[in-house]
Specification:
2 domains
Length: 325
């Protein structure tokens, strides 16, 4: 026996003697309660770039709205190609927490490219529910849609306004699909009740838009401070690949006025969507007096409120349909 091999045997014998001769134990680490880890897997598993295919998008939209019956030949292969993605998302929707791990300290450079894939994934899940219903699996359809609702809420929770807007469109898709199928009498009373109870417990407008506006405010404020302290603020815009506004750098007064505006808008978005409408209309008149460098960082508050109003209307219509016999 060679000397090197003998040394290896001696080492193994020594390790076994220290551990009492125990063998290695095969087991998984404890699962995380963070749904986002499953969602990231789901987004990576997507095999069909449906967001780039206009024909497929139109077909999905018509099916979701109930304007077209389920077509297995046209849509079945798309769902089959993305089954792993949909299943991973549904597993994530069963977990109690969601932290996407996005670094909002990057400010306006925070990557949110996942939004388009998230919207596509939600649509796949929504039509998967319609497919299950067409196959007579109404219970599976209900569970699929409930997973989609949770996924949409998790997308919109705790991020900037762009995430809330995307998530509201995702929720609206699911609400419209359930409404269309329920109107056609395809759900049993017990299933309608399960959906009603789950949706009734959702916030009227899907999630807390005021929190999202607060994140938006923090991102904008950080960017303005960066511009104020920069030796060449125009170079900051060049790095981002966007045209620089006039009147650079912003003054401390500009930043203070931005903060005042954003806080008032946030307060309005904490109000019910109907009550927020006149408040935001008056507020946007004040926006015109702000310097361009500030205005460019402000999302349209009334646009956010219109998304809230649409989601509220879709939710109320759905609840009425589910409550009917």
């Amino acid at each position: 026996m060679k000397l090197s091999a003998l040394r290896i045997l001696i080492t193994i014998a020594g390790v076994l003697s220290v551990n009492g001769g125990a063998c290695a134990e095969a087991k998984f680490l404890p699962d995380s309660d963070n749904a986002a880890l499953r969602y990231w897997t789901a987004l990576a598993e997507m095999r069909s770039t449906i967001s780039e295919d206009e024909i497929t998008q139109n077909l999905l939209s018509a099916t979701i709205k109930g304007e077209m019956a389920w077509d297995e030949n046209k849509l079945g292969p798309i769902l089959d190609a993305n089954v792993r993605a949909v299943q991973a998302m549904q597993r994530g929707a069963k977990l109690p927490e969601c932290n996407w791990g996005l670094d909002y300290h990057l400010g306006v450079s925070t990557p949110v490219e996942m939004l388009m894939r998230a919207r596509g994934l939600e649509r796949l899940n929504t039509v998967e529910g319609i497919r299950e219903l067409a196959k007579g699996n109404s219970e599976a359809a209900v569970n699929t849609w409930l997973s989609g609702i949770r996924f949409s809420q998790d997308v919109g929770r705790g991020g900037p306004i762009i995430l809330a807007l995307a998530a509201s469109a995702m929720l609206a898709d699911t609400f419209q699909a359930i409404t269309a199928q329920a109107k056609q009498g395809k759900l049993q009373l017990s299933q309608k009740k399960a959906l009603y109870d789950a949706i009734k417990h959702l916030p009227d407008d899907g999630f807390d838009w005021g929190i999202s506006w607060g994140v938006e405010y923090a991102i904008g404020n950080q960017f303005l401070e960066r511009l104020r302290k920069a030796s060449d603020p125009r170079a900051v815009y060049e790095q981002l690949g966007i045209p620089a506004p006039e009147n650079l750098p912003p003054t401390q007064q500009d930043i203070d006025r931005y903060g005042e505006y954003m806080l008032v808008a946030q307060g309005a978005l904490h109000e019910h969507a109907d009550r927020a409408t006149p408040l935001l209309k008056d507020l946007e008149l004040r926006e015109r007096a702000l310097p361009e460098v500030v205005r460019l960082l402000i999302p349209t508050p009334s646009g956010c409120n219109r998304a809230r109003l649409k989601l509220l209307s879709d939710r109320n219509e759905l609840l009425q349909v589910l409550a009917s016999d």
